[in-house]
Amino acid sequence: MKKKVFVFFPDGVGLRNFAFTEFKNIGEQKGFNITYWNNTVFSLKDNLDYNEVKIEDHTSHPLLSIYSRARKRAELNVSRDKFNDDVYPTYKFPFNYKGIKNSLKSLYTKYLIGLYSSEKGIVKLRQKINKLERSTTKYSYCKAQLEKHKPNLVFCTTQRATQSISALLAAKDLGIPTVAFVYSWDNVPKAMQVVETDYYCVWSDLMKEQVLQYYPFIKEKQVFVTGTPQFEPHYDIALKQTKEAFFNDYNLDINKKYICYSGDDETTSPLDQYYLEDLANAVRSLNVEGRNLGIIYRKCPVDFTPRYNAIIEANKDIIEVLDPIWKQVGKQWNQVLPTKEDFKMLYNVCEHSEFVTNVCSSTVFDFVAHNKPCIYYNYEQPQLKKGIRDIGQNYKYVHFRSMPSKNAAVFCEDKNHLKVLVRQILDGELSNVKDCEKWYEIVAGKTPTKSSENIWNVIKSLV
Questions:
Q1: Average pLDDT over residues 277-289
Q2: Binning pLDDT at 50, 70 and 90, where does residue 387 land?
Q3: CA angle in degrees (0–180, nearest 5) for 157-158-161
């Protein structure tokens, strides 16, 4: 009899990795009966004809957001003291004191942080969160669904969603094995391990080491290195278009060489539009010298701001906008959901651009999978003022310490150097690809084409 696996989507961020890749097909080929346990507004049944069980009760405990925020800050405080490292406070978002309600929430959160900022305190805080979530109607609702469908295992597609806590507790209380996938390359040091499951799948040896380092209550035998399905589409040559076909689809000039500008969200890079303007100025100057260059601007899918519009309009002879093919189904960042069609677009943007530029994005790895370089901007903009976050902070984060050398990316440290760097890359005199391939292996593991298969092999060993 086929083993039944619930692939659990607490929010939409896992869709890209686990609904639109070959993940499901590989699991079925290995003999699993796969049902998507769906807490999102995206219908997998209607859109993809997948078996799904919808979670309609989205109740969380009224105190969950307060306790979760306290848990995160307490963990960051412990990391700061344990590792004697001031990077951890920079992961914190400021408290909100606008209005009486927000002020009271912030004061109570600070009280909890003071009470629980120790390793033992964090365990108690997690136990308290679990107790709160077990008291919700969602917990009972999810427990009833599990009792009805009787899965042999629940695989949670992200470890960072508070919406998953009650559902996973219900599974654990019924004795159903639970596995969580650590979603992003920067999540572990940032205290984004919201859930506690029986097992964890991580990208790399580095990420496994971090999980054990930051969470002493997790044992080595609970963590499996699998890689991430995030980059698997870059090795699917069925997605590849000819340059002529791709340029024709998006009205690009076949005679131009294009540089991709990959936009960032407003939190990471609040002055991101000015780096796009700097690139446009560099391209315009090079074109005066006889080049024929253009820019493909691909925005961050969860950026709804109009901040780029004026710069795009002023440089419309140079900048072509290729928006990611994502669907907005709500106002929250995790309610902007990817589509399968976007894999093809991203593949061909990487394949047919000369290189990519951005602020500290993981698109460096998307492009290195196509042997394309990356420029990281690392200089202040003159528009920087008090209250606006400096992008230089990003490169000090723990996940950037995984770089085998600073040559793993081309860093532009001065606006006046950008034109020269662009020219050198175009002329083949400068590239980060060789060192970035080493970085890619450190971050994403040694088998980027086998990640889905590796995860199913872990699941098979557990059931």
A1: 98
A2: confident
A3: 130
Q: How many helices and strands (H and E) does the chain possess?
A: 17, 15
Q: What is the predicted pLDDT for the residue at 330?
A: 61
Asked if 426 and 146 touch (Cβ cutoff 8 Å), the reply is no
Task: Find the mean pLDDT for residues 316-323.
Answer: 97
Backbone angles phi, psi at 312, to 5 degrees: -65, -45
Q: What is the DSSP letter of 324?
A: -
Going by their DSSP bridges, the two strands 374-377 and 410-412 should be labelled as parallel
Tens of pLDDT, residues 86-125: 999 999 989 999 999 999 999 999 999 999 999 999 999 9
Q: Which 8-state DSSP code applies to residue 144?
A: H
Give the burial class of 110: count Cβ atoms within 10 A of its Cβ; 0-12 exposed, 13-18 middle, 19 or more buried.
middle
Q: Which residues pair with 412 in a beta bridge?
A: 377
Question: Measured between alpha carbons, how far is 349 from 78 in angstroms, rounded to an integer?
Answer: 42
**Residues 188 and 71: beta-carbon distance below 8 Å:** no
Cβ burial 368-395 (10 Å sphere, 16+ → b, else e): bbbebbbbbbbbebeeeeeeeeebeebb
367 Cβ partners below 8 Å, 6+ apart? 260, 350, 353, 355, 356, 373, 374
Task: Give the model's confidence band at 302: pLDDT under 50 very low, under 70 low, under 90 confident, else very high.
Answer: confident
Please report the domains of the chain, with CATH numbers, ordered by start residue: 4-60+136-227+448-462 (3.40.50.2000), 64-131 (no CATH), 233-444 (3.40.50.2000)
Integer angstrom CA distances of residue 115 from 71, 92, 106, 112, 293: 11, 18, 14, 5, 58
Q: Which element (helix H / strand E) includes 249?
A: helix 243-249
pTM of the entire predicted model: 0.94
Q: pLDDT grade, residue 47 (50/70/90)?
A: confident
Instruction: Name beta bridge partners: 201.
Output: 181, 224
CA distance 181 to 171: 16
- Looking at residue 182, its pLDDT comes to 97
